[in-house]
Predict the structure.
Amino acid sequence: MPESEILVIGGGIAGTSTAYHLAMGGHNVVLLERGEIASEASGVNAGNIGAIGWGDSPNLQSHLTMGSLELFKSLQLDLGFDIKFRNSGCIQAIQTEQEYDFIRDRVLSLRSRGYSVELLTNRETRSIEPDFSPELPGCMYISLRAQADPRKATMAFASAAAQQGARILTHHEVTGITVLDDGTYQVAVSGEDFHAEKVVLATGAWCGQLGEMLGIRIPIVPVRGQMWATSVLPPRVFHTLSESPLQWHQEQGNSSELPPELTHNGETRTTRHLYGRQTQAGEIIFGGDRQVSDYDLNIDAEGIEVNRGQAVEVMPFLKDVPISRTWAGTMPFSLDGPPIIGKIPQRENLYIVSGMASSGFGRGPMAGKLLADYIHSGHRPQVLAESDPARCVTSIE
Ligand SMILES: Cc1cc2nc3c(=O)[nH]c(=O)nc-3n(C[C@H](O)[C@H](O)[C@H](O)COP(=O)(O)OP(=O)(O)OC[C@H]3O[C@@H](n4cnc5c(N)ncnc54)[C@H](O)[C@@H]3O)c2cc1C
C-alpha cells in the first residue's frame, strides 16, 4: 500500500497550493486528483484576483486576498511560471446615482480603514478604460486587483509542489476513506489503497461527498457559475471589470437553506452580477450567475443573455460582438458564507480547505498556505479562527 505522511485530495487551486506549501516544509505529500489538475472550477473560472489591501486590522479576507496576490506574483516573477499574471486593477461599474452615493460612502469607509479603493467619475473612468459607457456615473477603482490564467496558475502550483518532492497523481478518484484504529487513514482509489497519517480535503464542491465517506456532514453546496467569451480581439479591455448588487453588501449567511450572494433562488432570478476581463490571448470573457446546481453544467442560455446585456451596459461596443463559446463550472459555497479552512474536530488528523465560493481562485493560494502552516507547526494561525470547521461541520448520526 503506498504510504505518505499527508494525503491531499483534490487538484484545484486549494489542493495544489496546500501540497506545494506542505512539500516546501519538508513533508512527504501525495496529492490525489480524480481528473486532470484544474479540471473543475479552478481551471474554468474568470481568473480575476480580488484584493483591496491589508487594511488597519487585517482579517481573514485580507490575508487570503493579499497573501494570494503575493503568491501569484511569486509564481510569475520569482519561480518563472508563465501564468499570465497582470496587476491590471479593477473597474467596478456604478449603474445609478443611488448606487454612486452608496459606493461613495463605501469608499470613504474603506479608505478610513486603510484599504486602497477610489471613486472615479465617468470621465476619470473613461480616461483609463476608454470603452467604458459614457452613460454610467463612474466606478469604484481598485488598483490592487489582478488577473491570471486560472488553469496555468493551478498547474503551476502542482508543478511547484512536484519540484518540492510531492507526488501528484491524476486520474486517482477517491471512493472510500477508512479511519484505522491508530487514527491514520486508509484511502481507497480504484482498486488501490493509500495509507496516510493525515488527510486534507480539498475537493471543492465535492467536499460533502468526501465528508459522507467519513461519517461527517460538511455544509458545502455546489453552485453553478457560467461564462461566455468573444472570439480573439485586439486589446480593448484593460482592467478586470465587475459589478455587484447593492443588497449583497448587507447580506448575511443564513446557514440553513441557501448560501448568501446567489443570483437565483431555485430557478427564479433574484438579481444579476457581472465580472469579466480580456485574456492575454484576446478573448473577452464575462460571467456572473450563481445558481445552486446539483452539479448540472448545462448552460442556461437566458442567463448568458442577461449577463451579456449587463456587460453591454458597461462596455457598449460588446453589443456588436458575437459570443463565440460558453462554459460552466461548479463553485464550492459554504452555507453560512465564510470559507471552511482548518482541522475537522470530529476526526483525528483530518483537515479541510474549501468553501471559497465565487472568489476561490483569488483566495485559494493563501488558503492552502495557511492550512499548510497550521499542519506544519501544529498551531492554528490566528486568522483561521474565522474559518474554523467546528462552526459548521457535524457528525452524521
Ligand atoms: C464560472 C466560474 C467563474 C469564477 N470566477 C472566479 C474569479 O474570477 N475569481 C475567483 O477568485 N474565483 C472565481 N471562481 C471561483 C473559483 O473558481 C473557485 O472558488 C475555486 O476554483 C475553488 O477551488 P478548489 O480547489 O476549492 O475546488 P476545485 O477547483 O473544484 O477543485 C476540487 C478538485 O477536487 C477533485 N475531486 C473531487 N472529488 C474527488 C475525489 N473523490 N477524488 C479525487 N479528486 C476529487 C475535482 O476533480 C477537482 O479538481 C469562479 C468559478 C466559476 C465556476
The first strand starts at residue 3 and ends at 9. The chain has a mean pLDDT of 96.
